[in-house]
C-alpha cells in the first residue's frame, strides 16, 4: 500500500513536470509580447526602451533558459509576479483556489445529495414511470451546455424574478478591485452561492445519477442480496445496509475520476457568474497575456486533478479488499478486456 | 462478439475458427437498424439529426432563398424583436438570428462529426498498436493515454486555443482565413479527445488477438498490419462507433463552450457557441437572444446522446441500462 502510494506520487510528479514543460513551450507560441502591450499605451517609448524592458524581464533569452529559471523559482516557492493584477502569483492563486474549492465542494455536495436518492430509486424500480422521468433528467443534465444553463438561471432568477444576484461576488468587493488580496476570500452572503452552485450541480447531477444507478443495479443483482431477501429483511434495510455500501465503491471512484469534468464545468460557471476562482483566473490570464500566471494556475489545477485521481485510486484499493496490488489490477483488466 | 466481416485470405481453418466462436453474428447494419428503430426516442433523435444534416448542407441555399443573410449587419435594427422579416429577431449588430442559427448548424455539425471521426481514428490506431504489440510499447502508450485523460480539459483548451499559429510557421493569410478556425478546432479537439477510443480499442484488441483465427492468419503468413486491419479491427469497430457517437455530443458542447468564451470559432463566422458570446451583457434587454442558440446545442447534444446509448444497447443488449 505504501509502496503503491509512493509510486503514484512519483508518477504524478513526472506528469506535472512534463505538463509544465509543454505549457511553457506553448507560452512561446502565444500571440503578442507582454512588452508590446506594456508600451502600447506610451507614445514616447522607443525601440531601445522596449529592448531594455525585454532584457529586464529576461524575454530576450531563449525559451528553455527562461523555463529553467521559472522552474527553479517555482521549486523554491517563488511563483513570480502577476503583471495583470500587479500582485504576487502565489497570493492570487491562494484566493482563487479557496474560491474554487468552496464552489466545487458546495456543488458536489448538492449534486450528490440530489443524485443519491434519485439514482437509488431508479435502480430499485428500473421500469417504472419515475425511473423514466429520472432518465430523461439525466439526458438533460448531461447534454445541457453549462454556460447556457447559467444564462438561463440568471434570466429566470435574476432578470425575471429578481430574487438572486446575477454576479457571483457582491458589488462592494468588485469596486475594491479584482482578486483584492487575502481578505477577499471571506465568506459571502448565502444567496450569492445559490445560482453558481445550482448551475454547476445541475450540470453534473445527471452523470452522478447514472453512476449511482448502474452501481446499484449491479449491487442488487448480487447473491448476498438475494440471500438477504430470502431471509425476509425489509427492502429498506437491504438497500441501505447491504446494497448501498457495495454500490458506493465504484461510484466514489468514478466520481473522483470525474473531478476534471467538474472542474471544466467550474471554469464556465466562474466565467458566467464572475466567480473569482481558478478557472476564471486562467481565462483572465490568457486574455491579458499574463502567461506566467496562466502557467502556474494551470499547474495547480492539474495538480488538483491528479491528486483527485490518485485519491480515487487509493480509495478504491482501500475500500475494495479484492484489489490490493497493481499486478492484480492489470491481470483483471486484461482478462476482462475481451468483451 | 466476433465478426470478421472481411473475406478471409483463403484457408478453411480461419473460417471454421471464426464461425465456431461467433454464435451471435451482428453486422454493423444490423446493430444500426436495431438502434434506430428500437425505441421511440432513438427514432426521434435520428430524424432530428437527419434534419440537422439537411440544414447543414443546404442551409446557405435556404437562407438565401428566404432573403436572409447571416453576415448582413444593420445597426438601426439592433436587438430587434421577432418580425416577419426576422423570425427570431436580430442580434446586437442587427444580424438575423435565424440565419446565423442556420449557418451555425453547419459549423457545429462539421466540428462534432469531424472531431469525433479524427479522435476515433487516432485513438483506434494507438489502441490497436498498444494492444497488439504489448510490452513496453503498450505501457508507454497507455501511460500517455492516462495522462491525457487526467488533464484539465477546458483550462488547457483555453490555453491551446489562444496559440498564435503564425509562430509555428503558418502564413498569416492561412491563419486569418475563415475555414482555418474550423480546422483548428478539429485539430485541437482531436489532440485531447482520442484517449477514450484508445482504451476501448486496446481492450478489444487484447481479447481479439488471442482468438484462433488470428493465430491462423499469422500462420498463413499475414503481416502484423494485415492482421491488425483485417482481423482485429472488425472486432473493435462496433464499440468504437458507439463511443464516437456519444463523443460527438461532448465535442459539440466543448466547441460551443470555447466559442462562447471567445476562443473557438471567431465572428463574423456564426457558430452556436459564439452567438451566445456576450449574451450575458444583453440578458437584461433581450433575454430571448440567449434562448435559441442554447436550445439548438441542447437539442443536438441530447439527440446524439440518445442515439449513442441506443446504439450501445443494440450492440450489447445484455448490458445493464447504464
Q: How would a textbook summarize the main sheet of chain B?
A: none
The share of residues in extended strands of chain B comes to under 5%
The CATH superfamily of the largest domain in chain A is MetI-like
Biggest interface and residues each: A-B, 60 and 50 residues
CATH class membership of the largest domain in chain A: Mainly Alpha
The helix/strand class of chain B is mainly alpha
Number of strands of chain B: 0
Distance between the termini of chain A: 30 Å
Q: What sequence of helices (H) and strands (E) makes up the elements of chain A?
A: HHHHEEHHHHHHHHHHH
CATH architecture of the largest domain in chain A: Orthogonal Bundle
Q: Kindly, what is the distance between the CA atoms of the first and last residues of chain B, rounded to a whole number of angstroms?
A: 19 Å
CATH topology of the largest domain in chain A: MetI-like fold
Q: Low-confidence runs of chain A (pLDDT<50, min 5 residues)?
A: 171-186, 326-339
User: Based on CA inertia axes, which overall geometry of chain A fits?
Assistant: flat
What is the beta-strand fraction of chain A?
under 5%
What's the helical proportion of residues of chain A? over 70%
Largest beta sheet: strand ordering of chain A: 1-2
What's the number of helices of chain A?
A: 15
Radius of gyration of chain A: 24 Å
Number of helices of chain B: 13
How many domains of chain A? The number is: 2
Question: Explain this structure to me?
Answer:
The complex is a heterodimer of chains A (339) and B (322). Chain A folds into two domains: 2-82, no CATH class; 88-338, MetI-like fold (Orthogonal Bundle). Helix content of chain A is 75%, strand content 1%. Chain A has helices at 2-27, 34-40, 47-57, 63-75, 89-124, 129-143, 146-160, 171-175, 191-220, 223-231, 235-257, 259-272, 278-287, 291-319, 326-336; strands spanning 81-82, 87-88. In chain A, strands 1-2 form a two-stranded antiparallel ribbon. The longest helix of chain A is centred in the first third of the chain and has 36 residues, at 89-124. The relative contact order of chain A is 0.13. Chain B is mainly α and 322 residues long. Helix content of chain B is 68%, strand content 0%. Chain B has 13 helices and no strands. Chain B has helices at residues 12-21, 28-38, 40-65, 97-133, 135-150, 153-161, 172-176, 178-193, 195-208, 212-219, 224-260, 272-275, 291-315. In chain B, α5 (135-150) packs antiparallel against α9 (195-208) and α10 packs across α11. Chain B is globular. The chains are: A mainly alpha (339), B mainly alpha (322). Chains A and B meet through α1, α6, α7, α9 and α12 of A and α6, α9, α11 and α13 of B.
Amino acid at each position: 500500500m505504501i509502496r503503491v502510494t509512493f509510486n503514484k506520487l512519483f508518477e504524478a510528479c513526472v506528469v506535472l513536470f512534463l505538463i509544465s514543460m509543454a505549457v511553457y513551450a506553448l507560452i512561446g507560441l502565444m500571440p503578442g509580447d507582454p512588452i508590446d502591450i506594456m508600451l502600447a499605451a506610451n507614445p514616447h517609448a522607443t525601440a531601445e526602451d522596449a529592448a531594455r524592458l525585454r532584457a529586464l524581464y529576461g524575454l530576450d533569452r531563449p525559451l528553455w533558459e527562461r523555463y529553467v529559471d521559472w522552474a527553479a523559482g517555482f521549486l523554491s516557492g517563488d511563483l513570480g509576479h502577476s503583471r495583470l493584477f500587479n500582485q504576487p502569483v502565489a497570493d492570487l492563486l491562494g484566493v482563487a483556489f479557496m474560491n474554487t474549492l468552496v464552489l466545487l465542494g458546495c456543488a458536489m455536495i448538492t449534486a450528490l445529495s440530489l443524485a443519491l436518492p434519485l439514482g437509488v430509486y431508479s435502480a430499485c424500480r428500473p421500469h417504472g414511470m419515475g425511473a423514466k422521468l429520472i432518465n430523461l433528467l439525466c439526458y438533460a443534465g448531461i447534454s445541457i451546455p453549462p454556460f447556457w444553463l447559467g444564462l438561463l438561471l440568471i434570466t429566470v432568477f435574476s432578470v425575471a424574478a429578481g430574487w438572486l444576484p446575477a454576479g457571483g461576488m457582491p458589488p462592494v468587493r468588485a469596486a475594491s478591485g479584482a482578486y483584492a488580496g487575502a481578505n477577499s476570500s471571506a465568506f459571502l452572503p448565502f444567496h450569492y452561492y445559490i445560482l453558481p452552485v445550482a448551475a454547476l450541480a445541475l450540470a453534473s447531477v445527471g452523470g452522478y445519477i447514472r453512476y449511482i444507478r448502474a452501481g446499484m443495479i449491479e449491487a442488487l443483482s448480487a447473491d448476498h442480496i438475494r440471500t438477504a431477501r430470502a431471509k425476509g429483511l425489509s427492502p429498506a434495510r437491504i438497500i441501505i445496509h447491504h446494497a448501498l455500501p457495495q454500490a458506493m465503491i465504484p461510484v466514489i471512484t468514478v466520481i473522483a475520476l470525474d473531478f476534471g469534468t467538474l472542474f471544466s464545468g467550474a471554469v464556465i460557471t466562474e466565467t458566467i457568474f464572475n466567480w473569482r476562482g481558478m478557472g476564471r483566473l486562467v481565462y483572465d490570464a490568457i486574455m491579458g497575456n499574463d502567461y506566467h500566471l496562466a502557467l502556474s494556475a494551470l499547474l495547480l489545477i492539474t495538480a488538483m486533478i491528479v491528486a483527485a485521481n490518485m485519491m480515487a485510486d487509493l480509495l478504491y484499493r482501500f475500500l475494495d479488499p479484492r484489489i490490493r496490488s497493481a499486478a492484480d489490477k492489470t491481470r483483471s483488466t486484461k482478462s476482462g478486456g475481451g468483451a | 462478439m466476433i465478426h470478421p466481416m472481411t473475406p478471409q485470405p483463403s484457408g478453411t481453418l480461419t473460417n471454421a475458427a471464426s464461425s465456431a466462436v461467433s454464435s451471435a453474428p451482428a453486422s454493423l447494419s444490423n446493430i444500426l437498424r436495431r438502434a434506430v428503430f428500437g425505441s421511440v426516442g432513438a427514432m426521434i433523435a435520428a430524424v432530428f439529426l437527419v434534419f440537422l444534416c439537411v440544414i447543414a448542407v443546404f442551409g446557405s441555399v435556404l437562407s438565401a432563398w428566404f432573403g436572409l443573410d447571416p453576415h448582413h449587419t444593420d445597426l438601426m435594427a439592433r436587438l430587434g424583436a421577432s418580425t416577419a422579416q426576422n423570425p427570431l429577431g436580430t442580434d446586437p449588430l442587427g444580424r438575423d438570428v435565424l440565419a446565423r442559427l442556420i449557418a451555425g448548424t453547419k459549423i457545429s455539425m462539421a466540428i462534432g462529426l469531424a472531431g469525433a471521426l479524427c479522435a476515433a481514428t487516432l485513438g483506434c490506431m494507438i489502441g490497436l498498436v498498444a494492444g497488439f504489440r504489448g510490452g513496453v510499447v503498450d505501457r508507454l502508450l497507455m501511460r500517455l493515454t492516462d495522462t491525457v485523460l487526467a488533464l484539465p480539459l477546458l483550462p488547457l483548451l483555453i490555453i491551446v486555443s489562444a496559440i498564435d499559429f503564425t509562430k509555428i510557421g503558418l502564413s498569416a493569410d492561412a491563419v486569418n482565413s475563415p475555414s482555418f478556425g474550423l480546422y483548428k478546432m478539429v485539430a485541437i479537439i482531436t489532440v485531447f479527445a482520442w484517449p477514450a477510443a484508445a482504451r476501448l480499442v486496446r481492450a478489444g484488441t487484447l481479447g481479439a488477438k488471442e482468438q484462433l483465427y488470428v493465430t491462423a492468419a499469422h500462420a498463413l503468413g499475414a503481416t502484423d498490419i494485415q492482421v491488425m486491419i483485417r482481423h482485429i479491427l472488425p472486432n473493435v469497430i462496433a464499440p468504437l462507433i458507439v463511443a464516437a457517437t456519444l463523443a460527438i455530443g461532448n465535442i459539440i458542447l466543448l466547441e460551443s463552450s470555447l466559442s462562447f468564451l471567445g476562443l473557438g470559432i471567431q465572428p463574423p463566422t456564426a457558430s452556436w457557441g459564439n452567438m451566445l458570446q456576450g449574451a450575458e451583457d444583453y440578458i437584461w434587454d433581450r433575454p430571448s437572444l440567449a434562448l435559441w442558440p442554447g436550445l439548438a446545442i441542447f437539442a443536438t447534444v441530447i439527440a446524439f446522446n440518445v442515439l449513442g446509448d441506443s446504439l450501445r444497447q443494440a450492440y450489447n443488449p445484455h448490458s445493464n441500462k447504464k
